[in-house]
Queue: 4 jobs
Job 1
Amino acid sequence: MILADIEKKLFTLHTKNITYQMKVDEYGFLLHTYYGAKIENEDMSKFIQYLWRGFSGHPYEMKNVEGNFNWSLDTLPQEYSTYGSGDYRSPALHVINTDGSSDCDLRYNRYEIIEGKPALKGLPATYGSSDEVQTLKIELLDKISGIGVDLYYSVFEQRDIITRNAIIKNGGKGKVWLERAMSMCVDYNIAPNFDLMTFYGRQLGEKFIERAPLRHGKTVADSFRGSSSSQRTPFMILCDNNASETQGDCYGFCLVYSGSFLSEVEQDQADQVRVTMGIQPESFRWELNSGDEFCTPEVMMSFSSEGLGQLSRNYHNIIHHNLTRGKYHLSRRPILINNWEATYFNFTEEQIYKIAEDASKLGIEMLVLDDGWFGKRDDARSGLGDWFVNTGKLPSGINKFCQKINDLGMKFGLWFEPEMISEDSDLFRAHPDWVLRTAGRQGMLGRCQFVIDMSRKDVVDYLYDSISSVLKSANIEYVKWDANRQIANAWTALLPAERQGEVMHRYVLGLYDLLERLTSSFPNILFESCSGGGNRFDAGMLYYAPQTWASDNSDAFARLFIQYGTSFMFPVSTMGAHVSACPNHQTGRISPLETRGVVAMSGTFGYELDTNLMTDEEKEIIKKQVETYKKYYDLINYGDYYRLSDPYKTDRYVAWMFLSEDKSKALVNYVQVRAYANAPAIYVKLQGLKEDSIYIVNGKEYSGRSLMKCGIYFGSENGDMIAKQIEVVEK
């Protein structure tokens, strides 16, 4: 719900449990007044304190106003701060004007309330009908330069989500340049003792958690890599320093963008806190001619007064219902087997068919043919860009081979890496200018490949045509979209020198354009994004591909941490997770097949191995895993997710659960990570149940209250990495 008090110039946004408020002051500045637990019918601007802070200036028009020393943009909470305004904190906007100055004096101009949610041109974003979302548009204007900023606030009342983005317009007569254009700015003038949670990592080790008390100055989590990256994630949480899974105030900020980004938290001289998030400004400079506008990516903001668990579930719900799209948006996805770890590049048509034939007998529903099926592709040094079948490996061709797989009762999918190009390829020989690299320089290789220049329309058109040709040639029902290096040498021949700062963002826009065209043209194909695993696991990619390969590390122990961290912002239905061979190819670790199955079931379930090499006993285990996943599919993928333990705090076990919407059924997953002799008993407390209901657990009756207060007993067993699944059903 959006409330606009015209007389007070007060704007109040309400969700089910959240209030966000701002107010235009007497000088026309849009000040932030409140963000937190729901407060009804109150002007929170009375909590803004106008206090003198040395070396904090005030606008010229206040020179004769009594007490002007106490009024400064450097100390007041703002909705969209600007560089050069006397506010010395991190700005949301930095403009270079036609005359070379950086002055930008944004004042309130007008507002509009929109039923529903406008789309963002060329960018992924949440969506919603007029009965589930309202949007507030507030126009700010610098009357001298003509620079305008339209701030958009979309309120998903039942989801406890507010999204923000900005559109910057050049209404002046000359050319200007954007040096920094953040999607949002949130100021906390009453700042509690905040902890900041960020998510860092590396390839094969994504989404680790770092939590630390906020310090004075700036704390940054960002990426310069041209993608969101596994090193940093475009998501962060501010929370009370005593916040836990079940209690405490928590604020989440998730950027819907797949390129270089900046997340920044600053605590100032007066202990006030500012959060900004958006496109990485260090690799960004955008030219705006008169009449042009620039749209920033969207940020999904949420607040929970009930701890980190509820904050995560808020994000899971909005991603399920208002971000992912298409046929597989909320429908069951097939259980697949991928040949990569079974064969790598070295395979024949007969080998792949035998894997599919054996897998089909186990209930597996799709065969995915990974890297090596196209061009001259026998290793990582050649073939990328040549999207036509390698008949040496697939003499039947894609169409006939796909039909053979379909005749087994299985679906068929293919791996692509469209954003890359090999030096040893027909495409490179024909178009060396399509490589993203500086003129006159060799450029940097990564995994023996270059990045193709997705900022060019002719490149995007070629990729659309060549990939479409393959997808039209056979009954292909799945695409794994990989990207196995990140961007360096971001230079394009199609832009002049002074506009090379646009390349990184234009690359992302080109990627989104290609994905939009392909997903629209092939609505029945399930797309899964991947970037050497989770190097581009972000909300922007989920708009086009409803699942992402969470990590190239498929070791069950490692996945306990990777999937735990990922769950803070992304639902299980978005996490690609497979049972792989043992010993594990990334770590050499040996884990029971049953445990690998339980861990992989907390994701979009599949297999990454050669079933022909398995014993009859192992095949029976796989059959049971497939049956179990199908039985609990809706509960796992669309039930409420609860983290029941913190793997960073104990090395003994990890536990999590899925709970149906009506709270009548739960599935508790437990992995004994490490065994200890004569160990203390472990009781895992459940969450979210009806306190007064009776539940059946292992044939015994328990009240919901007792299961949440005392928990389920898990006895200690001999051996590490022992898994259990327990069904909890309301009587």
Job 2
Amino acid sequence: MENEILELLKLNDKALSVYDIYDALNLKTTEDLKNLMKELNKLEDNLQIYRTKKDNYLLFQNCHLKVGTFIGNKKGFGFVDIDGDDDVHIAQANTNNAVHGDRVIVEITSQKGKDLDGRIVRIVDRKLDNMVGEYYVDKNGFGAIKLDNDKINIQITVPRELSLSAVPGHKVLVKVTNKLKGNNYNGQIIKILGHKTDPGVDILSVAAKYNINDEFSKEVMEEVEKIPDSVSLEEMKGRKDLRDEIIFTIDGDDTKDIDDAISVKKLENGNYILGVHIADVSYYVRENTKLDEEAYERGTSVYLADRVIPMLPRKLSNGICSLNPNVARLAMSCTMEIDESGNVVDYDIFESVIQSRIQMTYKKVNKILNNEGVPEGYEEYKDILLDMKEVANRLRKNKIARGYIDFEIDEAKLIVDDKGQVTDVVLRDRGAGEKLIEDFMIAANETVATHIYFMELPFVYRIHGVPSEEKIANFIKFIGVLGYKVTGKYKEITPKAMQNLLEELKEKKEFHILSTLMLRSMQKAVYDKSNIGHFGLASKCYTHFTSPIRRYPDTTVHRLLRTYLFKKQIDKDTIEYWDNKLVYLTEHCSERERAAQDCEREVDDMKIAEYMEKHIGEEYDGIVSSVVSFGLFVELPNLIEGLIKMDDLKDDRYIFDETTFSLVGQNTKKRYRLGDKLHVKVKAASKEARTVDFELCESKDVNNEEEN
């Protein structure tokens, strides 16, 4: 009945009453009416339909309301973040007691240009079961929690019997048990993370906030203990034996979870056979086991400053599933014949057993690829690495020709000591070896995705949609305001057009800032069972096949390859099972990926602020990375970013010029804009607030021009 109701409402412009729907569906009995009401209530709860004040129904997408997430502010007001739409400002009087993180229905009450104001009509979903805070004893002697997130404006009291014997200063994970009066709740401590002064508890506190667990359950570990530490001859049967092939891995210096290995052979016709061999994680992580359920819930490994919170227990991620050198390992291999133009002209996908010859590092490989000498132990692999460089060049030229967008975004790397303290912040290397592996993995991902796509079977795709015309137009308008003219025509948004736009900006001194802003104009890449291609890679068909140790979608892709290609299970029941399952799996994995990224970003901000607390008073050269109504954000060469507040610009009273995105002095006409070089001093930093404040060193201020 659900589909019939939705189809009926889709065909009608006006809202329909229960009896209108009852008649239109040719329902006859009182029992039919009861069932109809149940379906309508369910559809309303799922926000697929909307019930008006007159108890009529219409599709939710056709009503005047929107659904989003409330982003609270400690001052009481907030915003509703609506996917694919502008944020809606909510005054304190219109929050309807919503708290930060609530899923809400919002009504737009006014609009001025792009600025939207609204009121929260209804709280759809409230998750107060995974909050982090500090345990303390209040003035009445009751246990209470000071939440880390001050946007969540509630008071939590913890009865002694639900406190897990926490003491003041413990950082804890807490959930609400029942509501009292107003914004007061009773709560229960789920887990004690440690004392706030203990090393690493700060990072664990952020991870817990995003529901990222650093421990595995007893049931999971019991299953893991039954998994062997080595590959038996029995397990090798039926697989292509590649142990005599020259196969090796290239990773970072400290990588322990190695899930991809590579090989290459030159053919007489000038083509190359590129082999990408991926750890066969799905062989060990069987569907519907406790281990599989845990991996699904986590969705991804999370990389936080000085630690990794893995998707799989270390016995797997660093052991039997890791492609360590000189030991047999089960793999899934994708071998591709690459022609002179970088096209994949033939390929094969199969189960294999491999034995990596050597665990190479990017630093040492880059020396060979850059003609800077051959590190000890790499002598016999020099020619193969140079052949690999040729294959990578072919693949990259092919990608660029079709429109591949390389934003060339730098990343900061935190150097952390054994006490968890950041000792330096540097730019992460992205050399020839890193790009080579990226090119090889993209080729394998495309090949696997394309193969299953043409079989028309349910699959996990990595998709990246076309950016909105409005966002790209706004970006072009913005760079025009900055004085940069682009000569290309960008009415038709294609990867090639965006690639050309970046190329036009490449020589600008603030290119990396403009590139980052352009990236923010793009949609986010997600997982989906429907293929729409990957805009950023200019790929018609893409998946994630190459990192099953740390990404659950990749594990699922392996599972599907085994089902379809090796077990030949493509019957109706199998197809229907995966067709239904992948709807929820892809959405969940996308959500867990976002949580991991947000967690990693927050930990970086926290540890950088902690690092800068030790450098207050020190001076640096930087560049204006953003101009806002309340000040200037300045980025240092190592990508640390801090704010110069408007009040700290002492030489004049500055106003924000919206037409030129700059700050202008009312008397001096001095102007600050994106890309200006400034000499700044660290004024303040706060680990708790995740902020760094700069002030201008006026004696060394450069690049400011007076307006003529």
Job 3
Amino acid sequence: MMVKDLIKDASVQARTLVVGAVEKAQAAGLFPAGELPAFVVEIPGDVTHGDFATNIAMAGARAFKMAPPKIAAILLEQLELEGTHFSKAEMAGPGFINFFLKEDWYAQVLETVTALGEDYGKTDEGAGKKVMIEFVSANPTGPMHMGNARGGAIGDCLAAAFASSGYQVAREFYVNDAGNQIEKFGVSLQARYLQIFKGENAVSFPEDGYQGDDIKVLAGRYAEQHGDKLLALSDEEQKQALADFGLPENIAALKRDLSDYRIEYDLWFMESELHKTGQVDKVVGILKNKGLAYEKDGALWYKATVFGAEKDEVLIRQNGNSTYFAADIAYHYDKFALRGFDRVVNVWGADHHGHVARLKGAMDAVGLSGDALDIVLMQLVRLMKDGEPYRMSKRSGASVTLRDLLDLVPADAARFFFNMHQPGASMDFDLSLAVEQTSQNPVFYVQYAHARICSILKKLAEGGTSPRDVSREELLLLTDPAEIALIRKIAQLPGEISGAAARLDPSSLTRYAMDLATALHKFYGECRVQVEDEALMQARLRLCISAKSALANTLALMKIGAPESM
């Protein structure tokens, strides 16, 4: 079976070699018997000192009762490298053991990329487990803002990383189409509708209503289509009719904007369905039956403090209506218990940090596992242009919307920029840089690297040189430091993808893309592809094609274009 992640394979092999050497030394009486101390095998910062390094000698000093250099010397005598990826191992510094890869390993990397093509980078780490990524889930009463834009890029890329790591992935948008915000939505639309026919001075707008111009537009659209017929209806009928009209309009707009942002969901889950199907009542009943709910001041409370929260939470208000928290418990119960997801990841704004422990605790309370629920909290975005904070919106009158952003910068730039920082870090989005056609713009820099490879291939083809199958022996001709550095970077892609999923942080993929582009540009500057030695030329062509595949696959994961010319 082909090894898809050669770096992981080599790392595991190095660890196995170390464990075997320790066990041999213990069997020979060179080390005292006992449990193997915890140690790491990692890629050192300076790979000229070795491709992998382990700290086993320092980690085992206490257990083996001897100095690290002596431990390392003994282990080096016990290592059996024949038949492995490694040509040699040696001691460095205070006792590190460094492993050096065979030239053959670098050739295998290029052979693997050639064999897998568009599938290069994918692994089976997830073993088919079901994972749901819920992200954006913007309030459907208005347009999406910058937080939603950032959450969309993070969530979609994270879902792709999980899918490429062997998980069954579902993308989901939770539509809050019930509760207080919908009541406020109806009241706001009603006021704007009545102002059309009675005048703005005759109808006061609620202080806590939605102030955006989008509410005026919706009310105006309803008036154009239906005239003043609502004036004859009751207050409640007016609000209901306007909310029933406005909500589908807004949801359709959300879908259009997200589609333009290259995000498609497997399911748009309506909160109202939880109430219609009795799921909210069900989880409330579960909590009651477990003795985790009690009545106080005419309301029903959940004993959240039993599961680590700072205070108990209301489930059913005095007026008999369930709270948003009760619906949220029901929604996540639906994810785990009814739809069978092994793991759920929610991408939320940092302002929801207080809700994390409460919801994870509630999963434990209803008999599920809070540990299977992960919350990615993302910080705020500040838009900048020409070094100054930028504010503009044709629609909301308050903040820049996702639609505004997509009118200002390409989707490629938006998705790349939003994934350049860890979700938990605040970020400045530089609108000026995002449209700049220079190497200072990171997405341009990466895309140009892909276009540069395509240009090399096109130029050679025009001169009559086409890529052919390359033998292992010919690939071994790639020994220049710039060639080896590029191959090493190509080899990192599978681990970068699975690592992004494991860490719930897709920003590592943009950093990888930039590093890969840098390695490619350096190779281009130091190693001429069109040389007289035909075998070397074909080997370098194979390296170019492999780099192109790794770069294109990384960009495809983020749904960013890989242009052939720029």
Job 4
Amino acid sequence: MMTVTEQSIETEPKAEPKFRLQLPWAAWRGMWFFPAAVLWMELVLRIATIGFDYPKGLLYTFGFSMAAGLLLALLGKAFSPKAGRIVVTVLWAVFSVFYMGQVVYYAIFKVYFTLFSVGGAGQVAQFSGVIFGTILRCWWALLLMLVPLALLIWQGKQRIEWGHTRWKELLAPLIAALLLQMLTTACILPDTGGAMSASRLYTTDFISNLSVSRFGLLTTFRIEARNAIFGPMPAVGGRTEPELEPEPEPEAEPQVMDIDFAALAGQTENTELAGIYRYFARVTPGTENDYTGYFAGKNLIFLTCESLWKYAIDPDLTPNLYKLWSEGFQFTEFYNPIWGVSTLDGEYVNLLGLIPVTGTWSLTESATNWLPFSFGNQFRAMGYTTRAYHDHTYTYYSRNKSHPNLGYDYKGVGNGLNIKVMWPESDVDMMNATLDTVLADEHFMTYYLTVSGHLEYNFFGNAMCMRNRGAVEHLNLPEAARAYLACNIELDKAIGVLLQKLEETGHDKDTVIMLAPDHYPYGLDTESLNALAGKQLDQFSLYQSCFLVWSADMEEPVVIDKPVSSLDILPTVSNLFDLEYDSRLMMGADMLSDTQSPVIFQDHSWLTTYGCYDAAKDHYTSFIDTGDDENYVQSMNYQVDQKFTYSKLILRKDLYRQIWDDAGLWSGEEPDPEPSPTAEPQETP
């Protein structure tokens, strides 16, 4: 029997509460996933590539990752639940591919894929075999990067609260993201210690590897995009010029042209140009020395050699390279730093003596500039026949635009160089196909860009490694190291063909051969690099390489034991051949002079006879006491900064043309700013 009380309880409707407490985090169930996922991707990327070389950078990366993750969560809340989940899942899939691609790209090129690399994506795709092999090596990192996407697809619908009921719900993550972004930026801007401080990288200078190390990949892309659209931010605390003792007047004849920079500075109304001219007026010029004109009147064959390294030179394996080294100029401390666009930037430094500009293909951008000091233009002005050859696709890196502007009749695979197409192509085939034409000329300057030494170093996908496998099978080295030596044997054979042809045609005594690498073999793993070197390599010794200069009539080798680099090649060659040039406009110096030019690296580190400076760690190691190391480091940092600055101005402002205009140096009709047309493509066998 039911009581009245029980009946009333059962029949009376429940009263609705006047209000329901909704905690802010109730509507954001599972949204912590996105900040955590962004941070996860950044950490896996670090582990797979550069490691954790800058502890403070983890804090900055954490702040920016949290902010980016909150914005991604906000995107998932901004739409309806279904639409938000689809949009964010698709976007995260794109993020995953982006991060995974960075791991593979870094493993091949030792730099990150940036916005300016997009134009070369199709060219990178030519190396599909290399890419697939690298994916197999990096499988563990790629799988780890798929974990957030798998979790998002598997549990995202149940574990994450998508969509929103009120627009006010979107304010909290937006405000949190902005505060995190502002707080992290506020910590970075005062961080001005060292030549390449976090503040400087965030505001004015873009170096992808250092930027990823400090701020993470997403922020690095944001900085690059900001710089491309709006230009760099103003620097926080500029570098002031140190007080230096004035350089004494040189006793020997200075190597300069008839350019009065001080007068030009006073004549122009353009304040920026006046500042540029005042800088060049202060530069101490190089001077003539015992080797000025040492090769004057001779022919020149200059090769930029793919991934050539000093440890590929061996009296038994590569006897022709060893002959050039042992009988010619021996630069015992030659360094070959790597830049942002590997081979192309290596060529740019070798051929123009300028530091490449980060964020562009510098050699391609120079294709409409006036380049009076390039070997092709210098020798062509003296009546030499100037040709250039590359045993790979002639349009690769747009060399069909840049190389004619360097002063060459340029041929590659597809526009006149008829050789067997394989990967990589044979340097021997290139020599055999071209030398009869080259050596038929009375006076010639010929440039070769080789490809036989290209990665990937194995005995199943690299034709040159397979061709010369038998010569290296007995070596007690890792397989990749043996494969690297095998493909350089092809280069050595090509030099053998060149030496034989020179002797047969009587050009052996009147021709100089020069070989310079484009970069060290970054396609090798650390174990193989150390095995070839026979020691543990550090960040400086890794780039120690070779520059071979040889002529048959040299009576004895010449040894130069001071630190020099590829930046010094152009002034050295200009001095040896007694070419007309202005040493004040060079970023390097004649290796055979008494001038001390620093070996400069992409991150603004440097090395001299007195010591080396690690810009990433702001650490100086002294070799010889200068008496005031602190002032010396300050002055060298300033000098290195200036070389970067004026290399960029020479490229971006076509500065040589401006100087020729203002100084009245044109000897005839001003050259056409447009590059000369190349030959029509031809079929290759």
